[in-house]
Amino acid sequence: MADVDTVDTIEIHVRVNGTSRRETVRPRLTLADFLRVNCGLTGTHLGCEHGVCGACTVLLDGEAVRACLVFAVQANDAEVTTVEGLTGPDGQLSTVQAAFREHHGLQCGFCTPGFVVSVTAFLAENPKPTDEEIREALTGNLCRCTGYQGIVNAVRAAADTAGTAVTEGPA
Amino acid sequence: MKPAPFTYHAPVDADEAVGLLAELGDEAKAIAGGQSLVPMLALRLASFGHLVDLRRLDELRGIERRGDDTVWIGAGTTQATVQRSDEARAAVPLLARATPFIGHFQIRSRGTVGGSLAHADSAAEYPAVALTLDAELEALSPRGRRTIPAARFLTGMWSTELADDELLTGVNFPVWKGRCGFAIEEFARRSGDFAIAGATVALRMDGDGHLDRCAIGLFGLGPTAVRARDTEAALLGSDPLEADAEEIGRSATEGLGSVPSDLHGSAPYRTRVGAAMVARAWRRAVQEALHG
Ligand SMILES: Cc1cc2nc3c(=O)[nH]c(=O)nc-3n(C[C@H](O)[C@H](O)[C@H](O)COP(=O)(O)OP(=O)(O)OC[C@H]3O[C@@H](n4cnc5c(N)ncnc54)[C@H](O)[C@@H]3O)c2cc1C
Ligand code: FES
Ligand code: FES
After folding, report:
1. ipTM of the complex model
2. Chain A, 126-155: which have a CB under 8 Å from a chain B CB?
3. Which pLDDT tens digit goes with each residue over B184-204?
4. pTM, to two decimals
């Protein structure tokens, strides 16, 4: 049987974690599946596939979005950062990633990429959050293991570490 | 959990977009932020042979003061842009205050003003805000442009005055001046969920401290957001300090025809929650009008 989708394919150009990619995709391919299947970046997880759980969160032109609610064709000419793209050049953990490890912000790890990407975007826009703002920012990601307290602590620590780094920098 | 196949169109301007919608008929649907449409496609609650993406339509984006009395917000402007906008905060405070209630920040980074209005969920915040402030919606179709008052725009659950080949291009929000107060209150089980019930209040006091403008909006309490017009009329000319907030809440939610009943709450429960939200929003709006 002919694949109904093959009649319609579109060439897109996306920069993923700094690398330019040109791919021909079907319109109904979500950005999440594009990243996992076409790019082999399986750090982006899929839980609900309808926008509720946050496991698929990536940065699209710097903003945190649900990769399950964006079609890959809509990311044409955009810049995408996944959890794989947050580490330093030698693979060292980012401040947020290190804080999650240090403060028990994960157990099974399924939700973790979505949390880490969301928190990275949140702290970039809001570097000195109150505890209440942290809790509000975390409402868009679901975790079935940790009970959230470790995650809240990790975000607090990441914010404070980044804050200290700034204040201790050269005057 | 994968959407059905469709053909993708990315027109470069609004005229091309409405031309495509007209030509492709009811097989076609516009997609803006995709935050309501894509879940429906993924769950196969809906499917369309053609999606017409509005992402290249720069003319649909922006927040601009137009004259003294109006702020124009492009239909394609994201909710996140509204939230960051000083102009929106200063000139249309009710819209700015409603925005953080919409989903989560990862939703607001894609979701648009026009999408929220055109999707017209009965529990959505923006339709209630547009109705409360008497906003005017700009629409474009191959037949030309027209302006639709918010009061005529919402025609039912998920349905609006827009024709299949008509796009929202922008919304004109009136700037209320003078001693005004604005508040939105809603109750949801979890932050980011659609409200079980919610209320908006906008009011203005004259030099003698009497109400000369008053609007009360309700959402989540029927197929569309509604105004409590009888209650508003009874309050005009009165001294808001003498009004009883609980009584206003009861009066505003009295006689609502089709309050939804579902596993999140029965109709009588939602009605009581709605009354409490009106009372809270009323108190906050009055405080703001009195003390800024
Ligand atoms: C987890 C989650 C939680 C959410 N919580 C809330 C909430 O609490 N409150 C709330 O209000 N919303 C909520 N939403 C929905 C969100 O606000 C959507 O962004 C919004 O309803 C639709 O905007 P959009 O730009 O994403 O539109 P789309 O999903 O792209 O489109 C929605 C509909 O509007 C039509 N449309 C879009 N733009 C136009 C236009 N310019 N002219 C004509 N038709 C147009 C489309 O054809 C489609 O029918 C939530 C969504 C998710 C996934
Ligand atoms: S998989 Fe995208 S939000 Fe759940
Ligand atoms: S660590 Fe298991 S779901 Fe969050």
Report:
1. 0.95
2. 136-137, 139-140
3. 999 999 998 999 999 999 999
4. 0.96
